[in-house]
Structures are given as C-alpha cells and as structure tokens.
Amino acid sequence: MSGVLVIAEQRRGELRPVSLELLGAAQALGGLPVAVAVLAPNPARFVPALSVPGVAEVITVELAISEFDPDTFESAVGALIRARAPAVVLMAHSVDSFGYAAALAARHGYGFATDVFKVERTGGELIATRGGYGQKVNVEVDFPGRDTVILALRANVFKPPEGTAAPVVSAFEAPAVESRSLGREYIEPPGGDDVDMSTAEFILSIGRGIGEEAKVAQFRELAQALGATLGCSRPIADAGWLPKSRQVGQSGKTASACKLYVAMGVSGAIQHLAGMKHVATIVAVNTDAEASIFSVAKYGIVGDIFEIAEELRRHF
Amino acid sequence: MKILVAVKQVAALEEDFEFRADGRDVDGDFLVMDLNEWDDYSLEEAVKIKEACGGAVEIVAVSVGPPTVDEALRKCLAKGADRAVRIWDEAMRGSDSIAVARILAAAARAEAPDLLFAGVQSSDQAVAATGIATAGFLGWPHAAVVSQFTYTPGAATAVLRRELEGGLLHELEIRTPAVLTIQLGINTPRYASLRSIKQAAAKPIELRTLADLSLNAAEAGSSARVRRMYVPDKGRAELIEGSAAEQAKRLAAIIRESTGAA
User: Fold this and answer.
1) Is residue B35 part of a domain?
2) Contact B223/A100, CB-based, under 8 Å?
3) How many angstroms separate the CA of residue A263 from the nearest CA in chain B?
4) What is the ipTM of this complex?
5) Yes or no: is domain A197-315 CATH 3.40.50.1220?
6) Which residue has the higher pLDDT, A246 or A170?
7) Is residue B97 assigned to a domain?
8) pLDDT computed for residue A276 by the predictor
9) Do residue A133 and residue B132 have CB atoms under 8 angstroms apart?
10) Do B249 and A311 touch (CB under 8 A)?
C-alpha cells in the first residue's frame, strides 16, 4: 500500500478526539492514500465517525478485549503493518501508545519519533518536528533507510477533517496472541469535584510556587472572581491540595477548549508544557525569570505570585 | 531477587546557549546535567520493595553514557542502589532511545533481574520510549506509566495501575520478569543522607563496553536522525515590566481582552 496507516484510539467504547486529529495530519502527507484502523470489540460501531474526507479505507480489527493491552496491540498493529507495508504509521502520543509503540519500532527496526507536532513530506522524504531540551528548542528529524516510520503525534495540534465521506470498509483478522497481562478494572481518580477541564476556556492554574496548601484558597477565590476555572500542575494534585480532575498538562485533563491560560507559580515541567502549548494566550507569573514556562508563554510576569494575585483581585 | 533500574543523566539548557557548528544539537558547553526526575521515583519504588521484604533484594542502577554520568549513578547509590553499572562506547554519542534500549536490553540479559524499572520519560527529550523499547528487545511483558505497583519478591505476577489521561487509572496484573515505566507521584522519593552520599562516593561504578555485552556499535542504530535543531519563532514571552500593581493592571487588561469581557 505504501500509504498512511492511522491507528485510531478508543477508550471504554468512545473514540478519543485525537483519532480524528491524526486523520487531519495524514492529509498533509503529500497525497498518500490514508487507511485508518480501529481495534476494539465490535469495531464496526466506530466506522461512521471515522468516515471523513481524506480517508480511503477504514480497517476494522475485532479484539476480544475492550481495554488496552500491550501484547494484543503490539501483535495486531504489527501484523497490520506487515500486511499493508505503510510508509507512515500515525498514532496518538498517548499513554496507550507509550505502552507498545516503542517495543514495536524496536523489534522491527521501524523509524520512530514521538510527541511530533509537525509533519511534512517533500519529494518522498518524511520530516517530523518535535521539541527538545524541555521544549526550548525544536528538533527536526528524518528517517534515512527506513521503509516504515511510526510517528506518535501530539494531541490538540492537528485539525480534524470536517464533513463525511464513504471510504471502503474492510476487516482485518488480528493474529491470536497470548497476553501476559490481564486487565482488571478502571478506577476513577479520587476526589473529583465534577469539574470538566476539557471544556474550560479560561483556566487559572497554580503550581509548586504557591508553597503551601493553605494558599490554595486565595487562588480559588481569585479564579472565581475572574470567571476562570481553577487548575493545577502535577505536584499540586500529587500532594492532594487539589483533586486530580483539576490537573492540566500532558498527563492531566486535556484542556482542549482552553484559550486563555494564566499559570501562577508553575515552573513548566516538560509534561505540563507539552500539554498546554496549544493554548492561544498563555500568561506565566513566576518569581524565577529562567522558568521554562516563559518559553511557551505569550506574556510573562517575573514577580511574586501572591502580590500579583492580590493586585489582580482589585480589578475584578 | 534483583531489580534493575535504568536511569538517564538529562541535560538542561543554560539561559543563553549556542548550537553546535553542524546545527544538529546544542553545544555541550551550554548543558547542565542532572539525574532525570522520573528516575528518582523508579529508584525509590525499587528501594520500597527492598525495605518491605526485609532486604533480600539487590538494586542495580544502570545507565548508558559517558564518564560524566557517574555523578548521576552516585546519586542512585546514595539513595539506595546496591550497585551501579555504566555502559559506554564513544560510537554511542548522539544515540536515541531505541539505540540506548538495545544496550539496556543486553545489560538486562546479563544481569537477569526480576523487574526492570525505567522512568516514563526524560525531562530533556521526553521521547517516552526507552523502557518499553527495552522490553521489546527483551521480549518481556511490559506496562507504561505505572502510578501504583504491588509486588512480593518471588511472585510470578505483579499488580499495577497505569495512569491514563485525566488521572483515570487502569489496574492490571502482569507476569514477571517485566519492564515497568514509572510515573511521577507513585511515591515520595527520599533525600540522600550525608552519610550515604559519603558511602556512595567510595563505591565502585562498574564499567561495561559494548563488546562486554556482545554488541557492536554498527548494530546500535538509532530510529531517527536529527536534521537540525533551532529555537522556535515564538521564542520567549513578552515580559510585562513595572511594579506589581502595574503588572497586574496589564494582566487584567489581557484577561478582559481574551475573554471578550472588555
């Protein structure tokens, strides 16, 4: 086929939004035919959602298990790649992909790059761009001598195609595999307070810089006054100062609707930056002028977050 | 029982830095090295298993890198690793996660641990691939982004929770030996005491070459090649200057403008 094979991602019966973003990215690959595979029990249910312009074929792969399993995915996606010989495989840079993509690339000698936010193909040559050194630089990579390249793409970067189409639908039989792990159950994060960060347009976020739990109240009140949703970076959620449901960044809730992000005392650990880089307006307030967050922010304030918070409160 | 903990010495950029003449990396003079943040957690997880069973566990920290990496390995020795192994060959310079994983897999075959821990990702390049690629080369069971781990030394399986997007957890049981990539927050890493830092300074760091592991540099191929590295156009933030009152006033205006509440 030597086209593009997109691996759609579903969880608990729902297609993850990044799946359609991958299809958007596939269209930028110089007109290569695009096939999208969906691996799940009863995969046909996902066909309508994946039938978008630019998709030539939807491949359904029936799995016996509904939850992600590394052995099952490595085996099924590996078999698909061998059967279809795609030039490019696109998947999400997600926790599920973390669980098998590198093993697949390593075993079969595929070209491989992760957290890719730009991809282009000129004159048959594939070039992927990702961040380096804590997102402070961009790194352009290519894959000399590799017939197949797996790219894991960052979420919230590529635009999903709009409209519907009528691709060919075919079924692919995954080889039998004896999995070495057994999924038990999903567990919701504890202490959720019914906030949905994925729909919040304005997020005021706090990080390690607040220093102590007693200070959370001041920012909760400020967020309310500003009409913002209060979020936090990983250390605040890990410490239990705010529920996990309020954590934003790569491993937190995808803040996909966020347009304004005010980060107070967030230094900008790599996973936080990767997860928030898509936001149009980021304002960072930090005492440390060298904090990484300033490299993704549009505006920066070097100063004391408590003082700025107090002064800001007067305006609302 | 033995736990192998794969660690990486990561590089942060100095505030002002320059690229190498070939434009494919930052000039090494502008890098500040440290032990990867994630590796602190995977080492602590190994130490916790050892303490919980009264000590019949050997913890071996292993890293692929030049002599400067010894500093990161000494940190591991000070925090509870029993041994430290460094593998290096000048031909490895510039290798990516997949090439490093091939070497780690060879080291794991030689050490034959019951568990291999690695960080989910590194704080510098954040590829999030080394641990799982190592499992791929070894053909071992593996799980990524582990935020809770339960294992009794000698048991045939371990129970763990993967941390999915949004904090959702997925619990599963996995056969051992296995490779696990460990997520931040799984535990609270300890600080090394002055005494243990002193003791670590006197411990040997075992050196291995590729030949010791029956590998050669030509095999240790990377999965991608860096064409160029550059500072993105967006660059650094526009700094809002002035007193706190002035800065807050401007911030209020930005908020009103962005939220359309002007």
Assistant:
1) yes
2) no
3) 12
4) 0.93
5) yes
6) A170
7) yes
8) 86
9) no
10) yes
Range of the domain at B142: 2-220
pLDDT (tens digit, 9 = 90+) per residue, A59-84?
999 999 999 999 999 999 999 999 99
Which part of chain A is CATH 3.40.50.620?
4-172
pLDDT of residue B222: 87
Global pTM value: 0.91
How many CA atoms lie within 13 Å of A245's alpha carbon, on the beta-carbon side? 14
Count of domains observed in chain B: 1
Predicted confidence at residue A191, as pLDDT, reads 63
Give pLDDT, residue B220.
58
Facing residue for B142 by CB, picked from A70, A144, A245: A70
pLDDT means per 10 residues in chain B (262 residues)?
97 92 95 96 97 92 97 97 96 90 96 98 95 98 97 95 90 97 95 95 95 80 92 81 94 91 54
Q: For chain A, give every residue range classified as CATH 3.40.50.1220.
A: 197-315
| Full 3-state SS string of chain B | CEEEEECCEEEEECCCCCECCCCCCECHHHEEEEECHHHHHHHHHHHHHHHHCCCCCEEEEEEECCHHHHHHHHHHHHCCCCEEEEECCHHHCCCCHHHHHHHHHHHHHHHCCCEEEEECCCCCCCCCCHHHHHHHHHCCCEEEEEEEEECCCCCCEEEEEEECHHHCEEEEEEECCEEEEECCCCCCCCCCCHHHHHHHHHCCCEEECCHHHCCCCCCCCCCCEEEEEECCCCCCCEECCCCHHHHHHHHHHHHHHHHCCC
Chain position carrying tokens 């792969």: A61
Which H or E run includes A21? helix A18-26
Q: Is B243 part of any domain? A: no
* Cα nearest neighbour of B137 on chain A: A107
What does the pLDDT read at residue A193?
A: 65
- As to burial, measured by CB atoms within 10 angstroms (0-12 exposed, 13-18 middle, 19+ buried), residue B148 is middle
Q: Closest chain B residue to A188 measured between Cα atoms?
A: B168
Q: DSSP class of residue A31? A: T
Give pLDDT tens digits for A138-147. Answer: 999 999 999 9
CATH number for the domain running over A4-172: 3.40.50.620
**Number of residue pairs across A and B with CB atoms under 8 Å?**
274
Whole-number pLDDT of residue B262: 45
Residue B105: give its domain's CATH number: 3.40.50.620
Whether B260 is covered by a domain: the verdict is: no
The predicted-structure confidence for A96-140, as pLDDT tens digits, reads as follows: 999 999 999 999 999 999 999 999 998 889 999 999 998 889 999
Q: How far is B52 from chain A (nearest CA, A)?
A: 23
Are residues B183 and A251, on separate chains, in Cβ contact within 8 Å?
yes
